[in-house]
């Protein structure tokens, strides 16, 4: 009999392409991955891996068994979903990935309620950018992910995933207190156009991230060739740079927290907003743990007064 956990290890290696990548995906050490694969090789009586420079590659037998492993694991997941659905209880383990502002502004409330209502469900959370977490759900490394896109730039969702909308998150533009537009007052019909920031330096997310690409795409759409002066991952770091007079940045409302005293927030009249949604594998749709987590997320949105 082939050991299922060893097949999972082989599947992870095939998907990630390296021992270290498989270890990260499985949340184990590289030594544990190597030991499992060595045992699997002894079980099948053939080498499954070959040296490839400093790394490894799958042999023909390894690729053949990895293809079978992927199908076996998919069937096991379907069986687990059916058994959970039959019991009607949210039990076992649920792995969730979420982008930083959702980690801070939405998940704590949702997970506290989920733990109170389903004490036998163990939840593990990982902070990841949306494109990374969605790929992890497709691979099976995560069960559920919180992702975002924008009203004018949508993020493609792989066909094997199901998604549900949670909320629309409006954003402001953060400027230094001494900025030429800082005294623009808010009110009915008030707001500022992104086109008015043509002469400003911007503090943005890492290049290659979806939100960075959105910012460049959106500013160019208003006729601005963006001047990205600084890159900072966390919104609070971006706001610290704004307070120091080093540029302006986008400031989403979700998970925003206290704003530094030297920063002013300007509403945008261009209706700039993010769509926040949950995604999971379609073949896990019947799992009570998925449904329970999504229900808790929706209730957390209502608790924030953001039930839109």
The percentage of residues in β strands lies in: 15-25%
Quickly count the helices: 10
- Supply Rg: 23 Å
Shape by Cα distribution = globular
One letter per element, helices H and strands E, the order comes to HHHEEHEHHEHEEEHEHEEEH
**Number of E-type strands:** 11
**Gap from first CA to last CA:** 51 Å
Oligomer: single chain
Largest sheet: 7 strands, mixed
Structural class: alpha/beta
Low-confidence stretches: none
Share in helix: 40-55%
- Average of per-residue pLDDT values: 88
Q: How would you characterize this protein structure?
A:
With 308 residues, the protein is an alpha/beta fold. The chain is 42% helix and 23% strand. It has helices at residues 4-16, 19-26, 30-44, 60-87, 100-105, 107-117, 130-139, 210-221, 235-243, 288-303, and strands spanning 49-52, 55-58, 92-98, 121-127, 144-150, 161-176, 201-204, 227-231, 249-252, 263-267, 273-281. Strands 3, 4, 5, 6, 9, 10 and 11 form a seven-stranded mixed beta sheet that branches. Strands 1-2 form a two-stranded antiparallel sheet. The chain starts with a helix and ends in a 5-residue tail after the last helix.
């Amino acid at each position: 009999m082939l050991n299922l956990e060893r097949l999972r290890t082989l599947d992870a290696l095939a998907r990630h392409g390296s021992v270290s990548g498989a270890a990260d995906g499985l949340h184990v050490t590289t030594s544990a991955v190597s030991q499992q694969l060595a045992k699997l090789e002894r079980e099948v009586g053939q080498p499954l891996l070959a040296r490839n420079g400093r790394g490894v590659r799958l042999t023909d037998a390894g690729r053949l068994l990895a293809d079978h492993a992927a199908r076996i694991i998919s069937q096991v997941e379907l069986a687990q979903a059916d058994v959970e659905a039959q019991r009607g209880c949210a039990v076992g383990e649920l792995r969730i990935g979420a982008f930083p502002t959702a980690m801070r502004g939405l998940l704590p409330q949702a997970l506290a309620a989920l733990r109170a209502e389903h004490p036998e469900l163990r939840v593990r959370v990982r902070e990841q950018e949306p494109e990374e977490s969605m790929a992890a759900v497709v691979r099976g490394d995560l069960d559920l992910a919180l992702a975002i896109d924008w009203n004018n730039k949508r993020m493609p969702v792989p066909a094997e995933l199901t998604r549900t909308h949670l909320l629309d998150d409006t954003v402001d533009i953060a400027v230094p207190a001494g900025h030429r537009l800082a005294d623009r007052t808010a009110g009915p019909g008030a707001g500022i156009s992104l086109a008015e920031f043509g002469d400003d330096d911007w503090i943005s997310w890492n290049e290659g991230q979806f939100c960075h690409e959105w910012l460049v795409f959106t500013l160019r759409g208003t006729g601005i060739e963006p001047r990205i002066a600084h890159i900072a991952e966390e919104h609070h770091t971006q706001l610290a740079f704004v307070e120091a007079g080093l540029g302006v940045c986008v400031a989403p409302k979700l998970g925003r927290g206290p704003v530094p005293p030297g920063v002013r927030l300007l509403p945008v009249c261009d209706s700039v907003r993010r769509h926040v949604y949950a995604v999971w594998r379609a073949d896990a749709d019947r799992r009570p743990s998925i449904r329970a987590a999504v229900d808790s997320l929706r209730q957390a949105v209502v608790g924030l007064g953001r039930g839109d």
